[in-house]
Specification:
mainly beta, ten-stranded parallel sheet, six-stranded parallel sheet, 0% helix
């Protein structure tokens, strides 16, 4: 939990593996930005992260994961995997990434990726929702953030 009016920038060089924990809270998403440069994928298992993530190595979210904030990756051939009941509320900008959504994983926000794969069996529910206004950093208040507008969309 980040308290006060400041901001926290986390710089992670080696490894990030959050297991059954929570970092920050939904009321203070703009106060946290993590820059991840590890050799392995950033991992969150049954955890919550409220802030934006910049990574060059992809990510693995498994179990009941909640991410509120943007995920940005400039890596080459990134592989992002969301399994179980993983949920991302924010935008994903990863133009070179292959994003795999398995189980009941969902994304509420814009996704820019090389490829998105939806996998699973049974009554799995996948959803990707977006509107034309993409806010970076993440915020529901467009008057206080930079806004990018989608003018052309092609399938």
């Amino acid at each position: 939990l980040i308290e006060g009016e400041g901001k926290l920038n986390l710089y992670v060089d080696q490894e990030f593996d959050l297991n059954k924990g929570s970092i920050n809270n939904e009321d203070n998403v703009d106060a946290l930005i993590m820059y991840y440069k590890g050799q392995n994928k950033l991992k969150i298992t049954d955890g919550e992260f409220y802030g934006s993530i910049y990574t060059a190595t992809g990510f693995l979210f498994s179990g009941n994961v909640i991410i509120v904030g943007n995920i940005i990756s400039g890596g080459i051939d990134d592989k992002f995997q969301c399994t179980g009941s993983s949920s991302v509320k924010g935008n994903i900008y990863a133009p070179n990434a292959i994003i795999n959504l398995n189980g009941n994983a969902n994304i509420i926000g814009a996704v820019i990726a090389k490829q998105i794969k939806l996998n699973g069996t049974g009554n799995n529910d996948y959803k990707i929702e977006y509107n034309n206004d993409i806010l970076f950093p993440f915020s529901d208040d467009s008057s206080t953030r930079n806004t990018y507008r989608i003018d052309v969309w092609s399938d």
